[in-house]
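Researcher: Go.
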Amino acid sequence: AVAIRYAQENADVAINHRNSQEEAQKTKQFCHEECQNKQLKFPIIKSDVAKEEDVKKMVSRNSARLIGLDE
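Model: Structure:
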């Protein structure tokens, strides 16, 4: 729900999942349908946000791809 709301506000959104690539893909598709700016990016990232090291890797790998992402 948060990813979709940001997409509606015309923001690039990294979509995180731990086990369900299929659900992440559905979220990505819905974000594309909801946003007005079709140039937005919605990369799907597999990581476990309960693990600090996974979160650090996720941010460092994607901060350059997503405009406005603060590290």
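Model: The first strand starts at residue 15 and ends at 17.
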